[in-house]
Amino acid sequence: RKDLHGGFCGFRVVKFRRTGESSRSDEDGISGEHEVQIEGMRTELEPVELEDGAAVPKEFANPTDDTFMVEDAVEAIGFGKFQWKLSVITGLAWASNYAMEMMILSILAPQLHCEWRLPSWKVALLTSVVFVGMMSSSTLWGNISDQYGRKTGLKISVLWTLYYGILSGFAPIYSWILVLRGLVGFGIGGVPQSVTLYAEFLPMKARAKCILLIEVFWALGTVFEVLLAVVVMPTLGWRWLLILSALPLLLFAVLCFWLPESARYDVLSGNQEKALATLKRIATENGAPMPLGKLVVSRQEDRGKMRDLFTPHFRWTTLLLWFIWFSNAFSYYGLVLLTTELFQAGDVCSISSRRQEVKAKCSLTCEYLTEEDYTDLLWTTLSEFPGVLVTLWIIDRIGRKKTMALSFLVFSFCSLLLFLCVGRNVLTVLLFIARAFISGGFQAAYVYTPEVYPTATRALGLGTCSGMARVGALITPFIAQVMLESSVYLTLLVYSGCCLLAALASCFLPIETKGRGLQESSHKEWGQEMVGRGSHSPGESQE
């Protein structure tokens, strides 16, 4: 070996970059290009890298000296049958555990307002308590997923939501349903971990598109919930709607037994045999070869620690992401609440006069949802499809940071245009464009966040960001409803200003994740690993 390195055989020394290597951003000084594909078989004369950086043909090397990481295997196996199945199961979790349970709030509130003669503040509290539950549990579910596995955290959260979702249908009085819906919200806080598990099985080129397409399942879930309400509410009532809405979670709970644990998590926790078995299973299902060599076991380290989100490398990323997620939920749910007010008034200029006319309106006055109301709910939901398509088209072209910034800017611009006394048709167009882009920006954040954090803190990072989003959702009713009564222009200015700041925050994010794989471990270790495994391009030689 010494003679080979010394060069008496005349071999050219070549260093290779691993497929799907998680390159840092341009600011970190490492290129994001992926120049060598992992193949299931090697050619006779393909160089094999030695520990000291030299390279020799395979005929002079021990094949067992070759190593690969989970990222290599995921990239080599590619997107296939396994990922299609995983997409459907993750989409089912997104539709049943998230979209349907959130959509039911807009249907349940007016029904209980009339049936139980609830004052307006109690109706609002019924919605807010769900967000309180989500906010309080998001970090906890992230910590559980980092400590005990993505699959474990997801299964517990789904079963939790299923149990309390069904119990909600048997609530005898207001205080009972308030507590039970809060516990449902506590379970919903674990749903974002399905994205963590999903992203860790996706090859780099397919990751952004697949995560964005989860939004389609959100729309399908909300549409299904509205259609279910149209059938169930007039005949069986709201109790059966709650019970039937929870049943799709039972299907997901059964399918969870098919789900494997994340191979990245298994490697990080030291269970390399289980990780290798999972990768071989995926390769078999996809009909693709596994990379040759041994699976590298990452150094075992503490997982799910809050302090890891505030290391020098991630401190600004975490703080900026928290504000971005807060702004996304604050603006998205605010727009949903504003849409009803603006449609009822006709335009912005009519709101003040309409408020004066209905100022003496009794808070106990109730109106059941009509067929026209359900139709409006469907149209509002369908308006998010264009946002997904636009985001899908631009996110791999201009990058994650610029996609989020553009979404916030378009929303802010549309909010400012609402200052004009436009007609109903123009108002509808502006609201639909704003909702399309803010929902697309939300999905871009779901793509970026799992990519930017390493495996050790990925679930916790996503969980804390989701928790900050619930803070925004809690605050926005006081802006979209309470402040709106005082000044519609100030209300629109708050939303527009918040999104402008969020656009700046997106631009100032220190790391761009476009074109790079998922990090396996901490920044310091990752940088050393990059150097140790070679960061030169294939044609680069060392003498």
Automatic annotation (TrEMBL):
UniProt entry tagged with the keyword Nucleotide-binding: no
Ranges annotated as spanning the membrane: 86-109, 121-144, 156-177, 211-232, 238-259, 313-333, 403-420, 426-448, 460-480, 492-511
Subcellular location field: Cytoplasmic vesicle, Secretory vesicle, Synaptic vesicle membrane
InterPro entries attached to this UniProt entry: MFS, MFS_dom, MFS_sugar_transport-like, MFS_trans_sf, Sugar_transporter_CS, SVOP-like_MFS_dom
Domain Major facilitator superfamily (MFS) profile per the UniProt entry, residue ranges: 87-514
GO cellular component assignments: synaptic vesicle membrane
Pfam families per UniProt: MFS_1, Sugar_tr
UniProt keyword terms in alphabetical order: Cytoplasmic vesicle, Membrane, Synapse, Transmembrane, Transmembrane helix, Transport
Disordered: region residues: 520-543
Topology within the bilayer: Multi-pass membrane protein
GO molecular function: transmembrane transporter activity
Primary location recorded for the protein, binned into one broad class: membrane
Family: Belongs to the major facilitator superfamily.
Name the UniProt record assigns to this protein: Synaptic vesicle 2-related protein
Organism of origin: Cettia cetti
Taxonomy of the source species: Eukaryota, Metazoa, Chordata, Craniata, Vertebrata
